[in-house]
Amino acid sequence: MNSIRSAIFAVLFAMTLPAHPQTAKPPVRIAVVGLSHDHARGFFPKLKGRSEVELVGIVETNRELIDIYSKQYNLDSKLFVPSLDDLFARTKVQAIATFTSTFEHRAVVERCAQEHVDVMMEKPLAVNMEHARAIEAAAKRGNIQVFVNYETTWYPGNHAAYEIVHDRKEIGDLRKIVVHDGHRGPKEIGCSQYFLDWLTDPVLNGGGALNDFGCYGADLATWLMDGQRPVSVTAVTQQIKPDIYPKVEDEATIVITYPKAQAILQASWNWPFDRKDMEIYGRTGEVLVPHPNELQVRLPGQNKLTESTPAPLSGVNTDYISYLAAVARKEIVPTGLSSLSVNMTVVEILDAAHESARTGKRVDLK
What's the confidence (pLDDT) of residue 21? Predict the structure, then answer.
């Protein structure tokens, strides 16, 4: 009798256990390269409580920056190394998050490609097409993934707009895209001197407001146009505040033409308020994204805009850390806004915009 009871108990106990217990994935070993980009200040807080990644190194030589970040984010001094060579010699790394000047992106990717380590960098991809092509070639040689992080990539409103435009095709063929990006100016909003030193340098940043904020609109427009290269680019730039930004433009308007559409990018260090918003106009309707979590839509037959709150992004698209982990695990290949292919076109647009502003002429893309 006791043996029967024991058998019944064993069966009942087994029924309470998961049929297929999930094996926890080991965390992706990531390292940070550079701290001079102020966007790094948003990266370290996001690491707290994350099980999918493990920070194993930080490449930085500026002692003041090391001290600032160590104290502010309670970072172990043992994490810091002076170079990528030292990092790779000391520890196994699966992915790199880059917060250097834009000019340094090329060198970072070329070195990581030798170690077959995937790279994420802050926008934009490169200072010019020469650097962009070198990055593309290095990624191919090293068989690595390179992708670009934009704040706007993780806006639920932008993805909801894309779904309306492309998946549901509710506003007809695209005719005009208008993107506004910028703020009062990097110095005015309190960016660190370490950031300003290269952000306002025409070599290290590739330009001023045109590169800093024009890249957002070029990225969104290229994505919405399914990667299509423009027919032409026309741009006007100004130095409204030469006393603050003597080396670079602080105001830029870029007009991109396609066979049957236009995109107008308004990049500025002179807005009265921070903004990253977008307007999309199709043949029969419009979609506006005034804020990251807000959508306004007007479809055929409607006489006013309808407001809604898009669902939050989830899974690997939750934020750039989840995305980076999934890329490093080979679970996904970067697509859309983050992808290398889209961002090659972004740099081409920015290069053409600089040429147009310099010459006062439209630049036709062959």
Answer: 44
Locate 180 and state its tokens.
Answer: 């506004």
Of 138 and 11, which is predicted with more confidence? 138
Q: What are phi and psi of 157, to 5 degrees?
A: -60, -40
- Torsion angle of C-alpha atoms 267, 273, 276, 277, degrees rounded to 10: -100
Please answer whether residues 135 and 105 qualify as being in contact, where contact means their C-beta atoms are separated by less than 8 angstroms.
yes
Q: Is the pTM of this model over 0.70?
A: yes
Supply the pLDDT for residue 8: 44
Q: List all residues 6 or more positions away from 347 whose beta carbon is below 8 Å from its beta carbon.
A: 124, 125, 126, 128, 129, 131, 132
CA atoms within 13 A on the CB side of 121: 27
CA atoms within 13 A on the CB side of 193: 4
Return d(Cα 287, Cα 237) in angstroms, integer: 28
| Residue among 278, 324, 282 at smallest CA distance from 300 | 282
Closest C-alpha among 23, 189, 196, 211 to residue 122: 211
Domains parsed from the chain with CATH numbers: 28-149 (3.40.50.720), 152-312+333-364 (3.30.360.10)
Q: pLDDT grade, residue 235 (50/70/90)?
A: very high
